[in-house]
Amino acid sequence: MIRAIVLAAGKGTRMKSARSKVLHEICGRPMLWYVVQALRDAGIGEIVVVINSELRDEIEGFAVESVVQEEQLGTGHAVGVALERLEPRSGRLVVVCGDMPLVTGELLAGMAGSLDGADGAASVMALVTVKMPLPSNFGRIVRNGGRVQRIVEVRDATPEQLAIDEMNAGIYAFDEAALRQAVTHLRTDNAQGEYYLTDLVESFVSAGKDVRPVLTTDHLTVLGINDRIELARARKEMNARLCAAHMRDGVTIVDPDTTYLEPELEIGEDTVIYPNTTIGRLSRTGRNCVVGPNSRLSNAQLGDRVTVRESVVSDTTAADDVWIGPFAHLRGETRLGDKTHVGNFVEIKKSSLARRVKVSHLSYLGDATIGEETNVGAGTITCNFDGERKHPTVVGRNVAIGSNTSLVAPVSLGDGAFTGAGSVVTKDVPSGERVAGNPARPLPKK
Ligand code: UD1
Ligand code: MG
Fold first, then answer.
1. Rounded distance, CA 378 to CA 69, Å?
2. Is the pTM of this model over 0.85?
3. pLDDT of residue 121
């Protein structure tokens, strides 16, 4: 079993942030989440993350082992701290920086194997190198006669070394025993006064050991995020990847540049997403849905053939053939049955609408349960809050709620009830009864 160390304790000074760098998000997940995910995709399950003390509480959500590096004395020191935690084994270790969210499982999967040479000889270290447009803040790969000699950090580099366009990506594989031995000899005689993991290259090479480069051409995949400009670039790239994956699976995304997705979404075939739409937090849509333009889904669970136009839908479940919008706001565990229709300027919170309910214009429904085929007239409001507590409104089937009705909760309307326009309903209305007025009173029987 190959083990991995993720370096995530750095101060992230260049982010100018009170938050740890690796917790900054791209596409709805912290950077570190993507790195851990890529390691898992590569079949590496045993992961130790080196963190700083601020990350101590936050790391739990990642389901990995962690070790605190109390003082950030450099990447070499961080690896040393991880090695103290790991029980020594003979085998291979992958080391990856936690600030490279675009790294792929594919790239990491090949790393441990890259220590093996074609001639059967094994190297002690392999590292991913990448050709990159200059200028760049990455460490430079210094070669001699084609062989990797050392890595020079930008702050320690001469002008000639800065002209080198082959960089250290920050992904390594080591023979564990060799690593344990070499890490103890690192020194801090460099511009940053840190223990550089990258100095191991020179120390192995000068000891006559082989260090093997794994050249990649895709420099975006190994982009290390050090400031918010790189963070924005990484987000753009990740979003493009997420959109491409859904398009390959049969989703039409009219404009991927203005469609903002997260990982772990389910979007059904033949769904069309219009511009300026954000879909996040484990949302799911069935087939043939239409979402957008200008919409936001957050933990929305939509069935088939659901339309969401210019609306905000969070923590909401909608069955099949539901219409939402334009300009609706659904939230807080709302449930919409088949063929419900929620129209313009309607807000619904923590309510359940049975099939074929219509709330077409200008309403607020909160803590309400509405029975099948009921029509909620324009401007109907549930007065669910008495200043201290929220109260429920229960409406039966086939109820006709007149325009501008106020339902003063707690209150219920039985099946087939009717309220006249402008009614203020303060008392329960039995099935079949017709009420009107303020306060609403029964109308004479027809
Ligand atoms: C590092 C490499 C550089 C490479 C680049 C790729 C070193 C010395 N330099 O530079 O050659 O091109 O990554 O992105 O390794 N960290 C710790 N503890 C520390 C210091 C850092 O855990 O004491 C972690 C950081 O959280 C980060 C990673 O190590 O995830 C790399 O540190 P960072 O400061 O970003 O190094 P770079 O300057 O980017
Ligand atoms: Mg970095």
1. 60
2. yes
3. 81
Give, in order, the Cα–Cα distances in Å from 283 to each of 52, 128, 253, 277, 313: 32, 36, 16, 13, 10
> 3-class DSSP state for residue 66?
strand
**Per-residue pLDDT tens digits for 389-419:** 999 999 999 999 999 999 999 999 999 999 9
> Best substitution site from 97, 132, 187, 190 to test ligand 1's pocket, by max atoms within 8 Å of Cβ?
97
Q: How far is the CA of 207 from the centre of ligand 1 (A)?
A: 24
- pLDDT above 90 covers a percentage of the chain that reads 92
> What one-character-per-residue DSSP string does 101-132 give?
TT--HHHHHTTGGGGB-TTS-B-SEEEEEEE-
DSSP assignment of 135-176 equals S--SPEEEEETTEEEEEE-GGG--HHHHT--EEEEEEEEEEH
Cα 191 from Cα 171, distance rounded (Å) = 22
Catalytic positions = 361
Q: Report the separation in Å between the CA atom of 155 and the middle of ligand 2, taken as the mean of its atom positions.
A: 13
Phi, psi of 262 (to 5 degrees): -125, 165
**Which tens digits make up the pLDDT trace of 54-104?**
999 999 989 999 999 999 999 999 999 999 999 999 999 999 999 999 999
Q: For residue 56, what is the DSSP state?
A: T
Nearest CA to ligand 1 atom 8: 196
pLDDT at res. 194: 94
* Position in ligand 1 atom list of the atom nearest CA 50: 22
- Neighbouring C-beta atoms of residue 22, cutoff 10 Å: 31
Q: Over the stretch 9-33, which tens digit does the pLDDT of each residue have?
A: 988 899 999 999 999 999 999 999 9
Structure tokens of 258? 């203005």
Going by DSSP bridges, is the β-strand pair 147-152/46-51 parallel, antiparallel, or unpaired? unpaired
Q: CA 440 to CA 15: how far, in whole Å?
A: 60
Determine phi and psi for 242, rounding to 5 degrees.
Answer: -65, -45
Among candidates 331, 304, 342, 300, which has minimal Cα distance to 317? 300
The domains found in the chain, sorted by start residue, are 2-222 (3.90.550.10), 252-442 (2.160.10.10)
- The contacts of residue 80 (CB under 8 Å, 6+ apart) are 183, 184, 186, 195
Rounded to 5 degrees, φ, ψ at 169 are -75, -25
Which stretches of the chain drop beneath a pLDDT of 70? 446
Q: If residue 352 lies in a helix (H) or strand (E), which one and from where to where? A: strand 352-353
